[in-house]
């Protein structure tokens, strides 16, 4: 169950990456248009072309085995993350200073009816839960570590620093964004066009996001590729279609072998994520859905259960009751967030 949900979440993450990349690429084009013609210009562009462009590049990158384990890729992604997050924080802080006062309210975005408010809150819970998607690939990351020092110690330190740094950037981006725009805060500060100038800086930030997501898509896709290909290779060991490898040489990449099954399956996978993105091209709703799917089972339930077993905590003790209560409370949050996300997707699709 855990593995199946993990792979489903990775697939949805791939869909979200297709949407986000297309949104950022479209934002660059719109930013240049607004700079030339003014912020009141129509400057309407679609996502379809950019989704197809991103999908085409991923069809190529997906054929490279263990693409996500290339050291330079992780370094590049880290640098890109730092750049676009820092730019978003800087632009938000500058907007607050230019406004001269802090926008927003405790009650949040107003709605016409109480049910609309409830659905909006539920969907927002999913967006917040999206802060936990790294839990999907912890095992895959740990598998790449050397045994000295022990993987558990390395992962504990890495997780602690990652959570602290990520929380720092999330809070600053969210805080400054809401302080700058209040109830009109866009779902994505860099693509919602709260900022029009300096256009070149907004373009650069969106370009950093695109570069990051090109590699990030592979981080979440390669574990699925490895699982499916290993499963079929073991089930059909004599199949040439599945097991016969042909050497391929690509510049800057070590020589690797490719099979006909790999070409077909990985291409079909990329096309599937691209097709879902074309069918539901809704940035906020997809991210919230991903957060709702991941949050309780992968970030709360299984870690809590493993901790109880590891520490040998007896049933009905104070610690056991606290941990179980915490897990149940998070389950409630995950369920209501999932319901709100589904309602948001249906409304967006039909509306």
Structural features, described:
This is Amino acid transporter transmembrane domain-containing protein. It comes from Stephania cephalantha. It is found in: Membrane. InterPro entries: AA_transpt_TM. Keywords: Amino-acid transport, Membrane, Transmembrane, Transmembrane helix, Transport. By secondary structure, this protein is mainly alpha-helical. It has helices at 2-37, 48-61, 71-99, 114-129, 138-143, 151-181, 199-235, 240-243, 260-279, 283-311, 318-350, and strands spanning 246-250, 253-258. The chain has a two-stranded antiparallel sheet with strand order 1-2. Helix 1 runs antiparallel to helix 7 (199-235), helix 1 (2-37) packs antiparallel against helix 10 (283-311) and helix 4 (114-129) crosses helix 11 (318-350). The protein is globular. 30% of the residues are buried.
Structural class: mainly alpha
Whole-number mean pLDDT: 83
Beta-strand percent range? under 5%
How many whole angstroms does the radius of gyration measure? 22 Å
How would you characterize the largest beta sheet? 2 strands, antiparallel
Structure at a glance:
This protein is mainly alpha-helical. It has helices at residues 2-37, 48-61, 71-99, 114-129, 138-143, 151-181, 199-235, 240-243, 260-279, 283-311, 318-350, and strands at 246-250, 253-258.
């Amino acid at each position: 169950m855990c593995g199946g949900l993990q792979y489903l979440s990775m697939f949805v993450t791939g869909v979200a990456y297709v949407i986000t990349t297309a949104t950022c690429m479209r934002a660059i084009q719109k930013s240049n248009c607004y700079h030339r013609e003014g912020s009141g210009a129509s400057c309407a562009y679609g996502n379809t072309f950019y989704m197809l462009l991103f999908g085409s590049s991923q069809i190529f990158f997906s054929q490279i085995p263990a693409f996500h384990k290339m050291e330079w890729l992780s370094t590049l992604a880290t640098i890109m993350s730092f750049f676009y997050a820092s730019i978003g924080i800087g632009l938000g802080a500058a907007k607050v200073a230019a406004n001269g006062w802090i926008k927003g309210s405790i009650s949040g975005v107003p709605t016409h009816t109480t049910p609309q408010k409830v659905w909006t809150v539920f969907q927002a819970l999913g967006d917040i839960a999206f802060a936990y998607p790294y839990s999907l690939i912890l095992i895959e990351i740990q598998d790449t570590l050397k045994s000295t020092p022990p993987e558990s110690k390395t992962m504990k330190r890495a997780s602690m620093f990652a959570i602290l740094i990520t929380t720092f950037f999330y809070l600053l981006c969210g805080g400054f964004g809401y302080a700058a725009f209040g109830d009109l805060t866009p779902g994505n500060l860099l693509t919602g066009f709260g900022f029009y100038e300096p256009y070149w800086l907004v373009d650069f930030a969106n370009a950093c996001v695109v570069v990051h997501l090109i590699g990030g898509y592979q981080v979440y896709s390669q574990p699925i590729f490895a699982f499916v290909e290993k499963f079929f290779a073991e089930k059909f060991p004599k199949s040439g279609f599945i097991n016969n490898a042909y050497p391929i040489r690509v510049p800057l990449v070590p020589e690797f072998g490719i099979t006909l099954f790999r070409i077909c399956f990985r291409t079909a996978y990329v096309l599937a994520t691209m097709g879902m993105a074309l069918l539901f091209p809704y940035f906020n709703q997809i991210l919230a859905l991903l957060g709702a799917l991941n949050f309780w089972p992968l970030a709360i339930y299984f870690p809590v259960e493993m901790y109880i077993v590891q520490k040998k905590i007896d049933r009905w003790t104070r610690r056991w009751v606290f941990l179980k209560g915490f897990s149940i409370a998070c389950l409630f949050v995950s369920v209501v967030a999932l319901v709100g996300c589904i309602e948001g997707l249906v409304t967006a699709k039909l509306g």
